[in-house]
Amino acid sequence: MNAPMLHAMTPPLAPFVDALPLPSRLIASERDGRLTVRIRAGEHRFHRDLPVSRIWGFEGMVPGPTIEAERGRPVTVEWRNELEGPFPVVDTVAPEPADADGVPVQCLPGLSDGKPGRDAAGLTGHTVVHLHGGLTPAIYDGWAENLFAPGQPAVFHYPMNQRAALLWYHDHVMGITKLDVYAGLAGLWTVRDDRERELGLPEGPPFEVPLLIQDRNFDLDEQGRLTGRLLHKTDPDVMEAFPPFTVVNGKVWPVLEVRPATYRFRVLNGSNARTYRLVLLRDRVPELERITQIGTDHGLLRAPVAVPADGLVLASAERADLLVDFSDLEPGTELTLLNTARAPFDGSSFPAVDAEHAADLDGLLPYPQVMRLRVSAGDVARRSIPRTLATDYESPSPEVLAKAPRRAIALIEREIDGETNMLTMRELESVDAEYTGPAVTVVDDEETTRYRVVAAHFEDTTTFFPMLGEYEVWQLINLTGDTHPIHLHLDPFQILARRPIRYEIPEGGIGERDLAATVTLARDPDDELDHAIDDNERGLKDTIRVNPNEIVEIAVRFNTYSGRYMYHCHILEHEDRDMMRPFVTMAPELMPFMA
Ligand SMILES: [Cu+2]
Predict the structure, then answer these.
(1) Ligand 1 mean position to 576 CA, how many Å?
(2) How far is the centre of ligand 1, averaged over its atoms, from the C-alpha of 363 (Å)?
(3) Separation of 577 CA from ligand 1 center, angstroms?
(4) How far apart are CA 400 and CA 63, in angstroms?
(5) What is the dihedral of CA 250, 256, 258, 264, to 10 degrees?
(6) How far is the CA of 273 from the centre of ligand 1 (A)?
(7) Residue 303 CB-half CA count within 13 A
(8) How far, in Å, from the CA of 295 to the mean position of ligand 1?
(9) How many CB atoms lie within 10 A of CB 490?
């Protein structure tokens, strides 16, 4: 195969033939706040021309039902684990990163000579449910080691003392979240409140539409035809799965009929690893100006913002609340949503005007299609967009930040002979001149700070004890080549800065536990990223992208619950491979009693 072929392939499934499914809704207020959700094996058809797939899903569905809650009205969910085997996903590591024609195996369906993993085939259905974005007491937060086996129900109480936002619930089992979520264990959860209603935003069908975007791959039969069997495939060069087919609300490349009106799209990237950069095109021309972003992870922004000029970037677990105006369009008009982000994502830009040509096999993006929107006839219903949205949060003042405790975390990728790379969070503690061991030296103009590693793996001693009600500044120092979406459980945070760095890691600097590196707060000459904070990141976030060659600083304040929580990379293959750490939120008056 010649090199130009590496930019495009004919999709083996017809795009834009299935209608976008809308997940069923479970409205908590209609059931007195008491819900039962069965976690079950089921069957699902991902595309008109695919056989049915076996899945594991909430209520046996992909995605699970959308739970709708009201701020201040608690919801109790009995999660009933009724899973039964066999595990519906075949997990494999292909022996080579590319096939005989040079096509990366992750762009192709089928096992690519990989063996079906026996460990995954042996899974019997342990699960635990985490409500991502929920302000949830620790005992109901879905600690990754507190599992419920089939037959063991769990009753979780969600206070819902939190602002309106799109949350999502998903499996969070230590080591196998990547497999369980891939099998289908994810669903949306909406919190609504009065402020949203005052603003007259669309609520419910037809004008409010959830879009849960994921990527999936399927096995092939002996004749080379697609089966519906879900396939989680990685390769020796790429330890994350970047499957070729984009699925929205459970359908590959669906189509949504819209009226000539303003729609509200509630978008979640629920993929294991893939970051999307979404561009809306009409007649091959980007029309991003149709889109106004009004909300992010934890709900409304203070004011509406345009999406970035290159497109809307969403890494795994990030959300966007969008108003999209179709009111000027004639019936029959078609718009297409495309993804222009290469994988693994490293923050590199890609101009929206080139979106049509975004297909890139080396970038593990064989099919940029996401979905199509087709305008139907109907009454024109354009909504004006309020200029002021949220009024309930402020940025922390410089005085508060100057006094705030600071924490530093290095993000590290460690190569191990004959094994998949380990991604870890190295929690750092500053040391004085007497310290002579391996150190991370951070040079910021005249100021030099040296750190040693105090925690390297999930099971290491807890070192973060944030005080309730007090701001802290966390510095996330990326010493890897990829973007990591870092997620904190419990309260949201705000981004303060993205600061370019260059760094050196000496030979053998990344040890099992130690780390030696020199980090300089200055741009690397080869670095092409702008390290900007997008307008849509200046809201209340629970997941933030940390790009290569940068330190991201976030202002973190836990207000609600004392307890043991976790923070982690939301690339599921990374969190399963140790890129996760605990923290314990503390009531200040208990600190004197801590040994
Ligand atoms: Cu990561």
Answers:
(1) 10
(2) 17
(3) 9
(4) 42
(5) 30
(6) 8
(7) 4
(8) 24
(9) 25
Query: Ligand 1 centre and the CA of 568: distance in Å?
Result: 8
The pTM score is 0.97
Residue pLDDT tens, the chain, 595 long: 334 444 568 899 999 999 999 999 999 999 999 999 999 999 999 999 999 999 999 999 999 999 999 999 999 999 999 999 899 999 999 999 999 999 999 999 999 999 999 999 999 999 999 999 999 999 999 999 999 999 998 999 999 999 999 999 999 999 999 999 999 999 999 999 999 999 999 999 999 999 999 999 999 999 999 999 999 999 999 999 999 999 999 999 999 999 999 999 999 999 999 999 999 999 999 999 999 999 999 999 999 999 999 999 999 999 999 999 999 999 999 999 999 999 999 999 999 999 999 999 999 999 999 999 999 999 998 999 999 999 999 999 999 999 999 999 999 999 888 888 889 999 999 999 999 999 999 999 889 999 999 999 999 999 999 999 999 999 999 999 999 999 999 999 999 999 999 999 999 999 999 999 999 999 999 999 999 999 999 999 999 999 999 999 999 999 999 999 999 999 999 999 999 999 999 999 998 888 7
Distance 574 CA to ligand 1 centre (A): 5
Residue 480 CA to ligand 1 centre (angstroms):
9
Q: How many helices (H) and strands (E) does the chain have?
A: 5, 38
Backbone torsions φ then ψ of 419, nearest 5 degrees: -130, 160
Q: Give 579 Cα–ligand 1 centroid separation in angstroms.
A: 7
Q: How far is the CA of 549 from the centre of ligand 1 (A)?
A: 14
Question: For residue 6, which phi and psi values (nearest 5 degrees)?
Answer: -70, 0
Query: 467 alpha carbon to ligand 1 midpoint, in Å?
Result: 26
